[in-house]
UniProtKB/TrEMBL annotation:
PANTHER family: HTH-TYPE TRANSCRIPTIONAL REPRESSOR YETL, TRANSCRIPTIONAL REGULATOR, MARR FAMILY. It comes from the Bacteria. This is MarR family transcriptional regulator. The keyword Transcription applies. Keywords: DNA-binding, Transcription, Transcription regulation. The lineage of its organism: Bacteria, Bacillati, Actinomycetota, Actinomycetes, Mycobacteriales. PROSITE patterns: HTH_MARR_1 (PS01117), HTH_MARR_2 (PS50995). It holds the Pfam family MarR. InterPro entries: HTH_MarR-typ, MarR/SlyA-like, Tscrpt_reg_MarR-type_CS, WH-like_DNA-bd_sf, WH_DNA-bd_sf. Residues 6-141 form the HTH marR-type domain.
């Protein structure tokens, strides 16, 4: 048997990933924050105050899309705009205390939902999922780095 190609693996797992993604977000709908909004909040938590252009690049989205998402988060007092101390003409967006607590609450809630999904696996399935967790995280980190590289060119 030959080694599987990335295309072979993608064809096998894409339908299941899509199904799991849809089911996960259906049961995790108690928060009215969208996935992209949560991603922006998490990025601000990890990286600190950032310019809108930097957030757009990191998220792989256009400036108007980032600006709109940030405006919605600002209306909910989850982020705020602050003067850039290194360039007084510039503005950075920072996570508020409310934003940090909401990010933590929603993260814990969604971890619980995902744990419930994983809890349907038998012991062997859980062991295999544990082994795959590292691969999934590596893929997410590598893809995120590649996305940033391609949007800065």
């Amino acid at each position: 048997m030959t080694n599987p190609t990335p295309e072979d693996i993608a064809a096998r797992i894409r339908p299941a990933l899509t199904k799991l993604y849809v089911m996960y977000f259906r049961i995790a709908e108690q928060s009215d924050l969208t996935g992209p909004q949560l991603s922006i909040l998490a990025r601000l938590k990890d990286n600190g105050p950032s310019r809108i252009s930097h957030i757009a690049k990191q998220e792989g989205i256009r400036m108007p899309t980032a600006s709109n998402a940030l405006h919605q988060l600002e209306q909910r007092e989850l982020v705020e705009r602050v003067r850039d101390e290194s360039d007084r003409r510039g503005v950075r967006v920072t996570l508020t205390d409310l934003g940090a607590s909401e990010l933590q609450r929603v993260g814990e809630e969604r971890t619980t939902y995902l744990a419930e999904m994983l809890g349907t696996l038998d012991e062997e399935g859980l062991k295999r999922a544990d082994e795959l967790a590292e691969v999934i995280n590596e893929l997410a980190d590598a893809y995120g780095a590649n996305l940033i590289d391609t949007t800065t060119e």
